[in-house]
Specification:
Helix content is 76%, strand content 1%. It has helices at 11-58, 61-64, 78-109, 112-126, 130-156, 172-197, 200-208, 213-242, 245-250, 268-275, 282-318, and strands spanning 68-69, 74-75.
Length: 320
């Protein structure tokens, strides 16, 4: 029995191009990874060095100070940091339930055509420039809040401190609404995609044993989607912490520590946007870079907290 004809080509010649492509591909991926690490380390060093000088100059009083005066070169972090945290978590408190509700509606109750049309509108809203949303907030949302929300509240709840303030439509609450409008489309889109990635057998099994939609999501579907949901919330949190232009339009840019959600205030990003180009002294510029460094550390800290919380809840649900 004759043996099959062998190729006259050298086997090594067939392997060499494949090996070259693999080496090239591996080198490109490794270079991209190193580039990301190099970029992060460079940004960290550029922000950390001025922060060290500021901490040496002001000490602990920089964190607890409430005065921000470039003329006398006295700077305090507390008003801007408080504004950043309040607006971010108010925005999350508004947008997370809405995003989850949109996700359940898209997955369970909506028609396919309605889902496609609504998701297109949501993606369009997510891609709107922050400048456009900020201008809409300044010329539409702020006057509406001042006339239809603040004025009635001042007449009824004038003694409540967090509802007091001049009827300008500026402050923590309008900024939080703007942030929630910006992060809700992103979070809802990601949560919906996570829901579509679940095997359909899980949902069918839940309904097959007689569970209602609420029971299916509470006991079966949400535990399966918790890691992805926390990832979507973490992305929304990062977007809310770093948003600059839209917030600066409606927060009021008043460097003061206030307990009211309707009084003009400031945040780290709004303060950076309004003063960085006009900073004259080195200590002023270094202080602004320190604010950016604090913002980066805050983002990393909350991302870490979200990861720990996600793992803890996932383990809790898995042992039920």
């Amino acid at each position: 029995m004759s043996s099959p004809p062998q190729s006259t080509k050298n086997p090594e010649l067939r392997v060499v191009p494949h090996t070259r492509y693999e080496i090239l591909f591996h080198g490109l991926t490794f270079f991209s990874t190193c580039l990301i690490f190099l970029f992060c380390i460079t940004v960290f060093i550029i922000l950390a060095l001025p922060a060290i000088n500021v901490f040496k100059h002001f000490g602990v009083s920089f964190f607890s100070g409430t005065t921000w005066d470039p003329v006398t070169q006295i700077f305090g972090l507390l008003p801007s940091l408080t504004g950043t945290l309040i607006t971010t978590f108010l925005a999350l408190a508004i947008s997370v339930p809405i995003s989850f509700g949109l996700t359940v509606f898209f997955l369970e109750y909506s028609h396919v055509r309605l889902v496609r049309m609504t998701q297109t509108l949501i993606e369009l809203l997510a891609t709107l420039p922050s400048f456009v949303i900020g201008m809409w907030g300044l010329f539409v949302l702020s006057p509406f809040l001042a006339e239809h929300l603040q004025m009635p509240f001042l007449d009824i709840f004038s003694d409540i401190s967090f509802l007091s303030g001049p009827p300008l439509g500026l402050g923590y609450f309008p900024a939080s609404l703007i942030l929630s409008i910006m992060i809700t489309p992103i979070m809802a889109s990601l949560m919906t995609q996570i829901g579509h990635l679940l095997p359909p057998q899980i949902r069918e099994s839940a309904y097959g044993i007689g569970a209602t939609c609420f029971e299916a999501y509470r006991d079966i579907l949400i535990p399966q989607m918790i890691p992805g949901f926390f990832g979507a919330i973490a992305i929304g949190l990062g977007r809310a912490l770093g948003e600059t232009v839209a917030v600066s339009f409606v927060i009021g840019n008043a460097i003061t520590l206030t307990a009211s959600t309707f009084e003009p205030a400031t945040s780290i990003t709004a303060l950076l946007a309004s003063e960085f180009a006009e900073a004259q002294s080195d200590i002023h510029r270094h202080t602004l870079l320190t604010l950016a460094f604090v913002l980066v550390l805050s983002t990393l800290f909350f991302q870490w907290i979200m990861r720990l919380w996600s793992k803890r809840i996932e383990n809790k649900w898995s042992h039920r």
